[in-house]
């Protein structure tokens, strides 16, 4: 027997994870995604899945497929200086039954989530969004861009950092803040030493490597820079090589071997946002980047969005009263997400030389320890 109907706006990682969890909790779920197919909304090259992300994925039946398709690492990370000299290990935290982290390509993750969503009965409508939402005491009427008008018991805004749903929930005009860093990313063949996160700190930014398959890894470089125009993709290989000019070791080798003119490089700004709770108004509720955009320094952005979906479904399944369910959801999520947002920002400030004396290893381990606690 159905517990009700839910519209999820956004078919990204958070939206699909929420849709799966809500469908497993006996709701009839429809996802609208403004892009045309499963891959067109996928930005970036690879993704870090810490143990807490894998635990949440396990709750919706996706962890095993992610680990099989990715690279389950035996440790969290290692830190080197710009010359390539080893500094220290970053041990990380492994939740029982899970590796410390799994690396995976973003397209593969979307395929896994989409397949699972369809298996559990989620309806996904591509090339579709909404024009307006009209909330009532007993439901929400959505005018969709395909010309239809439908009524749902609940609407979930999982439509990203520039959410169109957010103004229906929050009074303030909340917008993401560019932190002064942007991230270059490029897929490369996995060198043998890339068996966990490998970090090399330079004078102007942080280079790093993440394994995302037996033979595949990606390199990232967090660069202190003015925000580049969204359509500025010219000469990215040349730009990245210039940023990496002072590096030796693994970064120097990758720069000279794999960062070529035909490299498929992605450049994205690093943005941050945290909305104060509550994260709902009436029957409309927010999750993921719509309420907590997280910079990539801890690899927790997607993890927190997946956790949001699992916790939201759990809270809704425990309460007949929606207000009580949404209050529990935010109570369980807000402080956890706030810690990740703020620590990620601090690591970014430290990488840019603006937080002297900051211990990134201790800060990372603290977050991972908190993330290992039950949801």
What is this entry, summarized?
The chain has helices at 13-24, 51-59, 63-69, 106-119, 236-243, 249-258, 301-318, 322-351, 360-371, and strands at residues 5-9, 28-33, 46-50, 71-73, 77-81, 86-90, 101-105, 123-126, 130-136, 139-144, 149-152, 154-157, 177-189, 197-201, 205-213, 216-224, 266-274, 280-281, 284-286, 292-293. The chain is an alpha+beta fold and 375 residues long.
Number of strands: 20
Report strand %: 25-35%
Mean pLDDT: 95
Q: Which regions contain 5 or more consecutive residues with pLDDT less than 50?
A: none
The CATH class of one domain, by name, is Alpha Beta
The biggest beta sheet is recorded as: 8 strands, mixed
Number of H/I helices: 9
**CATH architecture annotation of one domain:** 3-Layer(bba) Sandwich
Please provide the ordered H/E string of secondary-structure elements: EHEEHHEEEEHEEEEEEEEEHHEEEEHHH
Q: What's the CATH topology name of one domain?
A: FAD/NAD(P)-binding domain
Distance between the termini: 27 Å
Give the proportion of residues in helices.
25-40%
C-alpha Rg, in Å?
A: 20 Å
Shape: globular
**Biggest sheet strand line-up:** 6-5-14-15-16-13-17-20
Report the CATH superfamily of one domain: FAD/NAD(P)-binding domain
Structural classification: alpha+beta
Please describe what this structure looks like.
Helices cover 32% and strands 30% of the residues. The strands form four sheets. The chain has an eight-stranded mixed sheet with strand order 6-5-14-15-16-13-17-20, sandwiched between helices. It has a six-stranded mixed sheet with strand order 8-2-1-12-19-18, covered by helices on one side. The chain has a domain at 5-71 and 105-176 and 272-356: FAD/NAD(P)-binding domain (3-Layer(bba) Sandwich), CATH 3.50.50. With 375 residues, the protein is α+β, with helices and mostly antiparallel strands.
């Amino acid at each position: 027997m159905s517990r009700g109907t839910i519209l999820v706006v956004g078919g990204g990682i958070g939206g699909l994870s929420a849709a799966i969890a809500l469908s497993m909790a006996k709701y009839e779920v429809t996802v609208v995604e403004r892009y045309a197919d499963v891959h067109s909304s996928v930005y970036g090259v690879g993704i870090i899945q810490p143990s807490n992300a894998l635990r949440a994925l396990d709750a919706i039946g996706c962890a095993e497929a992610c680990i099989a398709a990715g690279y389950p690492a035996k440790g969290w990370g290692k830190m080197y200086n710009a010359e390539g000299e080893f500094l220290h290990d970053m041990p990380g935290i492994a939740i029982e039954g899970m590796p410390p982290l799994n690396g995976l390509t973003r397209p593969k993750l979307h395929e896994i989530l989409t397949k699972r969503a369809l298996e559990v009965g989620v309806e996904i409508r591509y090339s579709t969004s909404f024009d307006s939402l009209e909330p009532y005491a007993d439901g929400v009427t959505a005018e969709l861009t395909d010309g239809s008008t439908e009524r749902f018991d609940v609407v979930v805004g999982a439509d990203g950092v520039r959410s169109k749903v957010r103004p229906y929930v929050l009074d303030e005009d909340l917008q993401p803040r560019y932190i002064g860093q942007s991230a270059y990313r490029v897929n490369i063949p996995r060198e043998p030493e890339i068996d966990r996160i490998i970090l090399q700190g330079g004078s102007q930014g942080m280079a790093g490597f993440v394994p995302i398959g037996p033979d595949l890894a990606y390199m990232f470089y967090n660069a202190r820079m003015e925000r580049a125009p969204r359509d500025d993709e010219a000469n990215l290989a040349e730009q990245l090589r210039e940023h990496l000019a002072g590096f030796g070791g693994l970064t120097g080798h990758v720069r000279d071997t794999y960062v070529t003119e035909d490299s498929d490089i992605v450049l994205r700004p690093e943005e941050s946002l945290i909305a104060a709770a509550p994260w709902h108004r009436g029957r409309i509720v927010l999750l993921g980047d719509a309420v907590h955009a997280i910079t990539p320094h801890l690899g927790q952005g997607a993890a927190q969005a997946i956790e949001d979906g699992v916790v939201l479904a759990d809270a809704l399944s425990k309460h007949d009263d929606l207000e009580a369910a949404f209050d529990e959801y935010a109570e369980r999520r807000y402080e956890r997400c706030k810690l990740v947002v703020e620590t990620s920002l601090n690591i970014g400030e430290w990488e840019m030389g603006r937080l002297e004396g900051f211990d990134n290893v201790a800060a990372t381990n603290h977050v991972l320890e908190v993330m290992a606690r039950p949801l």
